[in-house]
Amino acid sequence: MAVEAWFTEDDLREIADGRSFDRGVGYRDAVVEIRHTPAGVWARVRGTSTYTVELSGCPDLLDGACRCPYGAEGAFCKHCVAVGLALLDGVVPEPAEPTADPAALRSWLRTLPHDDLVDLAVAMAHDYPAIHAALMTRAADGGALDVVDGAALLEPLYVDEYLDDRAARRYADAAGHVLDVLAALADSDPVRASKLYRRAVEQLSAQAAQADDSSGEIASAAAAAYAGYGRVCARAGEPAPAVLAGWLADLVLDDQWVLDVDLTDYADALGSAGVAAFQACLDARPSSRRAVTALRLRDQCRRLRQATG
């Protein structure tokens, strides 16, 4: 499969520090292999040792990881720069050897002791968030709920800094993995999932207000979490409708809230009593600066009351 750059040289200069970029120019010829991956490319670069490099992203987004000491600190190192420049030059070294046959790899893996396979899977999950998310989803699907560590699962959502556009897109991608696991967990344990969903909604909505979310990806993730929480609350039968109504009102009338919400996502969880409680919360805040939002939500309450008789 042809490998083409989805970024520019200016992108490389922006993400790498000046010294790494200048040194990366001299490492262009040290790139000995580049392979296409679902996320971007995987490459090998000869240096003091031969290091593996991964470049990932989409248009207007570039991220890189390298196994060298500087790259291990999270930096976009000279090896990452070299791979990026090689792609831009259209110089894509072919693998020195044919790609391993998946059937042969599968056969070899079957020869490994069970404990070795477990250690390998755990190590890969630690190094690669997408693999971690895939394993958590599989565990939740299979009912292995003790494997899904709620605190660890939500950790990628807690970022104590303002995110620029590039960082916001990476954050939204990580949030998508979190929501995939929560959706699977909701099928197995809706009560536990509801608690985690609530925290996800709160954190995603807060982060959307602390980011350059020009792409709208964080807002989309927050909207997905918001709708997911409504569904799982109906299945879990908790929190109580009045409690849920109060939480919803506090959330959507907050000045930091950035989404246009649809109260019908919570119709089943609120029921008629919850809708009435939500209406009471709106009426108690006539001076809210979110007057337009409150007016629209009052109209939704009226429609829901009519629909439920």
Task: Report on this structure.
This protein is of the alpha+beta class. It has three domains: 9-89, no CATH class; 101-238, no CATH class; 240-309. It has 14 helices and four strands. It has a four-stranded antiparallel beta sheet. A hairpin with a 3-residue loop joins strand 2 and strand 3. The chain is globular, with a radius of gyration of 24 Å. It starts with 8 loop residues before the first helix and ends with a helix. This is SWIM-type domain-containing protein. Keywords: Metal-binding, Zinc, Zinc-finger. Residues 51-88 form the SWIM-type domain. One of its GO terms (molecular function) is zinc ion binding.
| Number of helical segments with 4 or more residues | 14
Radius of gyration: 24 Å
Helix content: 55-70%
Instruction: Write the element-wise H/E pattern from the N-terminal end onward.
Output: HHEEEEHHHHHHHHHHHH
Report the mean per-residue pLDDT as an integer: 82
Structural class: alpha+beta
Main sheet makeup:
4 strands, antiparallel
Give the termini distance in whole angstroms: 59 Å
Regions with little confidence, pLDDT below 50 for 5+ residues: none
Based on Cα principal axes, name the global outline. globular
Tell me the total number of β-strands: 4
Biggest β-sheet: strands ordered side by side in the sheet: 1-2-3-4
Whole-number tally of structural domains: 3
**Strand content of the residues, in percent?**
5-15%
